Model the fold of this input.
Amino acid sequence: MAEARRPRWRALYAATLLYGVLSLIALWVFTRAYAI
Amino acid sequence: MHTIDWLLIVVIPALVIWDGVRRGSQAKDLEGFLLAGRSVSWWAVGLSVMATQASAITMISIAGHGYEHGLRWLHAYLALPFAMVILCATVVPWFSKARVFTAYEYLEQRFDGTTRTLASVLFLVSRGLAVGTSLVAPAIVLELVVGIPRNIAIVMMGGLSAAYTVFGGNAAVIFTDVKQMTVMFLGIGVSLYVAVAGLPEGVSFGDALTLAGASRKLEAIHVAPDVRTVFADRYNLVAALVGGLFLFLGYFGADQSQVQRYLAGKNVDHSRASLLVSAFLKVPMQFAILLLGALIYVFYIFAPAPVFFRVDALEKAIPSAPAEVRAEWQDLQERFAVACAAREQAARALLAADESSEAQAAAVLRERNAEVAAIKRAANDLHRALTGAEGGDGDFIFPWFFLRELPVGLLGLVIAAIFVAAMSSLDAQLNSLATSSVMDLWVRFRDPPPPPHHVLRLSRWATFFWGAFATVSAFFVARLGQMIEAVNIIGSMFYGSLFGVFLLAWLCPRARGAVGWLALAGGFLCTMFTHFVINRRKVVIDGVEQWPVGFLWYNAIGCVGVILIGLLLAGRISGPRAAAPK
Done:
């Protein structure tokens, strides 16, 4: 059961890490966009 | 204030408290009281984890921070998704498998009883020092809104939170937190809407962002220009990612007030998923609150604002002050009115500027901002000299805004949101302080183990004791700058070392017995040395006095200190492996 669930968790972890990286990029773009 | 607002302020917290007390039926045995019978779904635990971290300070102090410094505080949360994944893969399954009541109980299984005791004491001291701050922020609001003395407000809030936590235990904490988080989301949304809708005609949301951006309020990412600044500046990307990572690993992985939330999950998957709720929602939520502060700043470019947001206290002290002080106050107010008018003019000029003149118009706006800020600083000095009160007016900005700008009904909702936010943070702290003090410092030393109904009764009394302690300590909370920073500085001094000992357990199988507590004590001393010796003298960066080592780094220093000392001692000291916990 736990073995079967493992790939799902791996995908969720990868999605969370990707979300973290994308948040960083989005905020960097936001910062640049409004810097005059 | 309108009757509808009063009704909301009374009814919303009353419903939450009633629900908490009602949960007492689920807290009949020890596991039911301390861990809600390990039966709660991931979404409820996830919202409770968020509510535990988000106190009333979150709304009041962070919105004030957004007004004064823009989005830079967001740095502190950027590491959260990364920390949560690490925790989901490590401590969550460890705790779940070990079937522990407290995080520190796991340390006894892995190292020895002394390590458990020391970790528990460090937790109780750090949490005990910060617990009072949860009550101060809403008490300020009560004082401003209805004139109830701050200390009486503190007693009311502390008493109510303690009451439903004593009856309902962890189930009450979690399910009241769910409602509290919902009210808080509503409060943030409503405030954002009012700040945007209140902008003058001809100034759009986009214009507001332009003005905030030109005033350096939208710098969500700040990269330090050199190595010295990386360590000293509290707000830069590297410090945030490294220091913040360790802060969150420590807070969510080794602070019982959070561990006890996800130990209540139905199984390990529910516990893991609950942490990922924060990983996804926390950054947008903090962004919304900080943006609210930045929008309030733009709002007051066009609307009249006081020289100092704690003007009530200042105006009380002014009549009895010497004539020259009264004249100075009069002069400050006049200069402030002139400076604000000039700033508004500069803002309108920027909005009318074309691409070629935009940069110059933005520079003029920043100059006008600096003039306004200088007058505000002088008012702050005057306030400190007259009243002896420390700290600026940051925590008073958001209350000033909503008391004057929110329409009937919404004002009541936002004040209710602040009250319930205070309770949602305090209840979890009381519940965890009680659990750790009873399970780690009393039950562990009893031979034979006391019967569960005794432990349950003592846990309720311990919750009551910590409620009283939180209330009394709130009277004495020193204002180290804004409260949100004070809480994080205290936490940073402890969390790194606490998490370090869990990490040591994973990284070094040979580290056993006394190595645990020796490494923990050593790591903690490293943090203390940094704070009290290295940071005794400040350095000046960009005209601002800063500690040579910013507080977010304390987390990394404590954690790395524990691991290095642990690796050094592992195999050299062979303490007996502890017996299984009782």
Observations:
- The radius of gyration of chain A is 16 Å.
